[in-house]
Amino acid sequence: MLIAVEGLDGAGKNTLVAGVMDELTRRGAAVSTFTFPRYGASVVADIASEALHGEHGDLSESVHAMALLFALDRADAATQIRSALAENDVVILDRYVASNAAYSAGRLRQDASGDVVTWVTDLEFGRFDVPVPDQHLLLGVPATVAMQRARSREATDPTRVRDAYERDDDLQMRVDAVYRQLASVGWASPWIELGADSPDSTEPTRLVERLIRK
């Protein structure tokens, strides 16, 4: 099973991925994880990060140029993902193609039915042929809560300076709305919106049981 975990910065994706991985491992499953963008391991991902922190001239102003950089990062990792799927029971992705769709749409003030979501879908799943997730998990933390967490994290950790996307509160609100639209229409694969149906839905044991039932 290939699972993509999505949500705003500060939503708690890293914590969820670690918890689910530990629970699956406890049950005897072989699990592998990838985090996107692959900062420090991918040149194009690093260029994207540098652009979002003010480098490379006006590169970050282009929605499609930034989306292409993030897409190329995943295209470069596609073979590794397929190998991990062949060797493990579950592969968990911390951010994936839906992030590109949601952020691109949010920047262009489009919704999930807009042209840029179609473009990202065709580019990544079509032309670049990256693996399609079997399941999406959306951390439905309110956008205001996620943004406050991101600000607090920056204040206590000098290595976690927020980028241009993270500092734009209006953008974060729009991206949150697109994420929820993608979940509601089951974009690319089934979605589970965590925290939306019950307060304990992000608890790893209950979540893994829910995934097994599916």
From TrEMBL:
Catalytically driven reaction(s): dTMP + ATP = dTDP + ADP
Keyword Metal-binding among UniProt keywords: no
Enzyme Commission number(s): 2.7.4.9
GO cellular component: cytosol
Classification via InterPro entries: P-loop_NTPase (IPR027417), Thymidylate_kin-like_dom (IPR039430), Thymidylate_kin_CS (IPR018095), Thymidylate_kinase (IPR018094)
Record-level GO BP terms: dTDP biosynthetic process; dTTP biosynthetic process; dUDP biosynthetic process
Residues covered by the Thymidylate kinase-like domain: 5-183
Top-level taxonomic group: Bacteria
An MF annotation (GO) of this entry: ATP binding
Pfam family, one: Thymidylate_kin
Keyword annotations: ATP-binding, Kinase, Nucleotide biosynthesis, Nucleotide-binding, Transferase
Family assignment from sequence similarity: Belongs to the thymidylate kinase family.
Functional description taken from the UniProt entry: Phosphorylation of dTMP to form dTDP in both de novo and salvage pathways of dTTP synthesis.
The protein, known as: Thymidylate kinase
Organism annotation: Gordonia aichiensis NBRC 108223
Gene name per UniProt: tmk
